[in-house]
Design brief:
The protein is α/β, with parallel strands linked by helices and 243 residues long. 23% of the residues lie in helices and 18% in strands. The chain is built from four helices and seven strands. The protein is elongated, with a radius of gyration of 28 Å. The relative contact order is 0.16.
């Protein structure tokens, strides 16, 4: 028990001498002593078998990634319903080990982002009671609402990790709402309407078109001295119900 740790090793569930391979004690017996007979150990010895290591980037506080998304959709100007037709995402998550697995991670993130853009909304009564406390009331995207998705990767390994990976789970979630909003506004532009507040529900779209009263005022867009950006290439939208 008092032998220096540098001279010991763990092999097949037993503590052995590193130089002679002689078995000193089963690991199970050591665990029993540490956790149930701590009174037999030196007073300053921790009463647990646990080792923790932490990793943090050294040159930068975060692992930076990048990507681009675009959405093609239809907006029914009579009902305010948005139909997603196709979605594209190209992202840089660093080194990719299993492309198929990363593709599905990104697709799952896009679905989450679409949920926040079009469906998910926590509403409360004037008394502060949550009105969407079950999945029957809180809308989430289902398979029928999902468009075809094309995923692409650009690999720029980061030097901040041995693997060179940056992470892929959030890539789809972060960009999808902006791509959906831009596509909706691109579709509404000929009608002189814009939406800025998520979720972009039929009610909010019809309100922006002036067809129904607004219950949630739209936030004013940020003012900028720069010239308005042109429509992004590949961002397609069609209006249904337009004369």
């Amino acid at each position: 028990m008092l032998q220096a740790a540098e001279t010991l090793d763990i092999v097949n569930g037993e503590i052995v001498d590193r130089t002679t391979a002689q078995v000193r004690m089963p690991l199970a017996e050591l665990s029993r002593i540490v956790y149930f007979r701590g009174d037999t150990l030196p007073p300053d010895l921790p009463r647990e078998l646990m080792q923790t290591r932490h990793f943090i980037t050294k040159e930068y506080p975060f692992a930076f990634t990048n990507g681009v998304q675009a959405c093609w959709l239809e907006v029914d100007a009579e009902t305010g319903v948005v139909q997603l037709l196709k979605h594209w995402c190209v992202e840089d998550c660093g080194r990719v080990i299993n492309p198929m697995l990363v593709d599905e991670q990104v697709r799952g993130g896009i679905v989450q982002g679409i949920g926040g853009a079009l469906y998910e909304h926590c509403t409360y009564s004037p008394e502060g009671q949550l009105l969407v406390g079950s999945m029957a009331d809180y809308l989430v995207p289902m398979a029928a609402e999902m468009p075809d998705m094309e995923i692409g990767h650009v690999e720029t390994p980061t030097r901040e990790s041995l693997l060179g990976a940056k992470g892929a789970g959030e890539a789809g979630t972060a960009g999808a709402p902006a791509a959906v909003m831009n596509a909706i506004n691109d579709a509404l532009r000929p009608l002189g309407a814009k939406v800025f507040a998520q979720p972009f529900t039929p009610e909010r779209i019809l309100s922006a078109l002036g067809k129904v009263p607004s219950r949630w005022p739209e936030p004013a867009p940020a003012k900028s001295a720069a010239a308005p950006a042109s429509k992004a290439p590949g961002l397609l939208a069609r209006i249904l119900g337009r004369p």
